[in-house]
Design goal:
This protein is an all-alpha fold. The protein is about 75% helix and about 0% strand. The chain has one domain. About 45% of the residues are buried.
Length: about 425
């Protein structure tokens, strides 16, 4: 009866379109009161327990750093820098688009923001350079998803909290898959680019000041990741460094952000995180309940009895996560599934860090798969196209990302080569 009630509340709240924090809160109360027969006040203790995790501080700080860096002219600066580097390579403009997306995503930490910032500038440029419209649209929409696999990544921090693994290890593991996916997209872009599509401009035509400022932006992930990997500072401390660097570059050195925009960055960060933190804390409370009832262990035992080897488990979980990615946003999927699936993966011999990367790459593809792929809807707005056209344009890139997913899944060293 308890299981039926649990499912009933979940379905009822979904049907009425209630927000995720209300759904999770209702499930937490139901679980403790009707299943464990505990006082609902225990949830308050769980919230304090979850909020006491130091790594949580990294999330608002990385979001704030991304907000500050996107308020200025970061996208333009990075695009000029990428165009300068790729000017003599066939397909140079398409390559510069991918590199700009990956660099900007590493700074902003947001796939939709990356698509808006880079796509709105480079889509007209690609069309003017005779790149096929469908290719240009699909390329930018797909390259915008790279924000969650290239560290520092907020979904990685959330997975680390829910699966109880190291954030720094996840950041390290994201480098190989990030480079792989960028390389796959670049290879396809070069193959599909118009003949002799070398960028035709003199170096003097590129704004040298913009390139110089692009180099300053490029140093941000280098400093952050360099400090983390050398052990000079922790993931949380690196987020503080990111905010300080963003303020130094955007507000003091180049003054590309007015103080009014500086203030609005704090406000927007607070608005974004107000609901996210409550959702995260409630998810931790439910996770504690599940652990107390040994539900992850039961699911792990069932999966390991049905899926008797690592290969079959990874195949089934990949298919499941791809389906989930079509209907759930990445944060919700990680909050719900990471604590349930990770124990089963570990029991079958999958490294938990590797499994975290597999999950994130799967859910990354969800950004460009209907019916709720966020980047699809962002693309319809900035490219002024209907949803059907955008979906058709991303189909080849979904296939490319699936190839990358297969490689990441079955060649663990792509993720674990730094360990």
């Amino acid at each position: 009866m308890s299981g039926i009630g649990f499912a009933g509340i979940f379905i009822l709240l979904l049907l009425f379109g209630q927000p995720l924090f209300l759904l999770l809160g209702s499930i937490a109360i139901y679980s403790y009161v009707f299943i464990s027969e505990e006082s609902p006040t225990i949830i308050i203790g769980d919230l304090f327990y979850a909020a006491d995790k130091e790594v949580l501080l990294a999330i608002p700080l990385f979001v704030l750093a991304g907000q500050l860096m996107t308020k200025g002219k970061m996208a333009n600066n990075l695009i000029d820098l990428a165009k300068l580097v790729t000017r003599k390579i066939p397909g140079g403009l398409a390559i510069s688009a991918i590199l700009s997306c990956s660099l900007f995503a590493a700074i902003s930490g947001s796939s939709p923001v990356t698509l808006i910032a880079i796509g709105s500038i480079l889509y007209p440029a690609l069309k003017e350079a005779n790149y096929p419209e469908k290719m240009s649209m699909g390329l930018l929409t797909s390259a915008g998803t790279l924000g969650i696999i290239i560290p520092p990544s907020i979904p990685m921090i959330v997975f680390a909290i829910m699966a109880n693994v190291s954030v720094i290890d996840l950041f390290k593991a994201g480098i190989g898959p990030g480079f792989l996916l960028v390389a796959i997209l670049i290879g396809y872009a070069v193959y599909r680019s118009p003949a002799r599509s070398v960028l035709n401009f003199k170096v003097e035509e590129i704004n040298s000041q913009s390139v110089f400022r692009g180099l300053w932006a490029l140093f941000m992930p280098v400093i952050i990741l360099g400090g983390i990997y050398t052990g000079f500072f922790s993931a949380t401390e690196s987020a503080v460094v990111a905010v300080a660097y963003a303020i130094l570059v955007e507000c003091i050195i180049f003054r590309e952000i007015k103080w009014k925009e500086f203030y609005s960055s704090f406000v927007e960060t607070g608005e974004l995180l107000g609901s996210l933190f409550l959702i995260l804390l409630l998810a931790v409370s439910i996770n504690k309940f599940l652990s107390f009832e040994e539900i992850p262990q039961q699911i792990s035992s069932y999966l390991t009895s049905v899926l008797t080897n690592k290969i079959s488990f990874l195949l089934v979980v990949n298919l499941f996560l791809l389906i989930v990615g079509c209907f759930m946003d990445i944060m919700s999927a990680i909050l719900v599934l990471a604590p349930l699936l990770t124990p089963a993966a570990v029991a079958l011999g999958v490294d938990p860090i590797h499994f975290g990367i597999i999950m994130i790459v799967n859910l990354e593809i969800g950004y460009i798969t209907p019916p709720i792929g966020i980047n699809l809807f962002v693309a319809t707005s900035i490219f002024k196209k209907n949803l059907g056209e955008v979906i058709k344009s991303v189909l080849p890139y979904v296939l490319l990302l699936l190839i990358g997913l297969i490689l990441v899944t079955f060649v663990p060293q792509i993720s674990l080569f730094l360990f």
